[in-house]
Each structure stands twice: as structure tokens, then as C-alpha cells.
Amino acid sequence: MQAGTGHRPAPPGPAGSRPDHLTENMTKLVPTGAGRTARRRLLPAVPLLVLVLAGTACGGGDSKAASAKTPVTAGAPDVQVAIDTFMFGPKTVRVHVGDTVTWTNHDAILHTVTSGTRRYDPTNSGLVTATDKDGMFDMQLDGKGATAQFTFSEAGTFHYFCDRHPGMEADVEVS
């Protein structure tokens, strides 16, 4: 036992094993009650960190963030757009004439899906100076789980926004 600590030093290992100062750093004194402590081995954090980073790099990260930026091309007649945390995701969907887009509200408040454009104050990007609704669609999704659908019957790029929340904007590209 080491004098004054109540603990045994790590036994010497075979040639090439970890030096005592590394073994010592991989253990921790933890309370066991009644003023006593016990030495517990800590798992090295580096392998765990490597796994987490590898998972993120391989697509295991935040899928909401990725889907909000990546255009989706329709392979089927129904394309899904999520409304989550005051964002349309994905920001751009690509569909064909005759395809239907379904918006689903994942927020607990009212959002709209309104076709048209908005103009903002150039000195204050959060200040809407004009809203130009084009009348193609204007649907309310009142709370979590609400859905709305629209079938696109002509080609073009159609911009839409939430009429209640500046900055919530996206596009549907129809070919």
C-alpha cells in the first residue's frame, strides 16, 4: 500500500505495458459511503469520441439539419415537407406536374403554407415590408400533426412562406 492513501500501486506490467502514470490517470477515487473511497477504473473517452465523430461524419448526425438544406426529388406522387422548429424541411422539393406535396406541422402552434413572396427591409432582415400572395394556395396548419396538401398542375418554381413567421420560406420546383 502507498503510505497515507490506503491504495495499492498498480502492479508492474509486462514490457511494453502502460507506464504507471498513465494507469494512475485512468482511475478515479469514488465515494462508497461512511467516509470511504474506492478506486474505479474509468473507460478511456477517446475511443467513444472517435465513434461519435465517425457516426456523425457517416450521416449519423442531425438529420433535420441535413434535410432542411438538401433538395428532395419526387420519386412517388406524394412528397413530404415537415414544418419543424419554425422551418420548412427540405427547403426545396422537386416534383413533376401532377404530383402532390404534403406539409405536416410538427410544431405546437399555427403555421401557414402560403404561395407568393415577401420583401424584407434591407437594413433589418427580420422586418417584412411587403407580402405578395399569389393566390395559388394559402393553407393553415393549426398545431402539431396538422397536414395540408396541394397538387401541382403546371411547371415552374413556386415560392411559399408562413404568413405568420418571417424567415419561414421554401420552394417547390415543378417540371
What characteristics describe this protein?
alpha/beta; four-stranded mixed beta sheet; 3 helices; 12 strands; globular
Q: Indicate the percent of residues in helices.
A: 10-25%
Number of strands: 12
Count of runs of 4 or more consecutive helical residues:
3
Helix vs. strand class = alpha/beta
Give me the Rg, rounded: 28 Å
Largest sheet: 6 strands, mixed
**Which residues sit in consecutive blocks of at least 5 with pLDDT less than 50?**
7-30, 37-70
| Shape annotation | globular
Q: How are helices and strands ordered from N to C? A: HEEHHEEEEEEEEEE
Distance between the termini: 79 Å
Beta strand %: over 45%
Instruction: Output the strand order for the largest sheet.
Output: 3-6-12-11-8-9
**Average pLDDT taken over every residue:** 73
Describe what you observe in this structure.
- There is one protein chain.
- The chain is of the alpha/beta class and 175 residues long.
- 17% of the residues lie in helices and 46% in strands.
- The strands form three sheets. A six-stranded mixed sheet has the order 3-6-12-11-8-9. It has a four-stranded mixed sheet with strand order 5-4-7-10. It has a two-stranded antiparallel ribbon with strand order 1-2.
- A hairpin with a 2-residue loop joins strand 8 (110-121) and strand 9 (124-142).
- It is globular, with a radius of gyration of 28 Å.
- The N and C termini lie far apart (79 Å).
- The model is unreliable at 7-30 and 37-70 (pLDDT under 50).
Short structural summary:
With 175 residues, the protein is an alpha/beta fold.
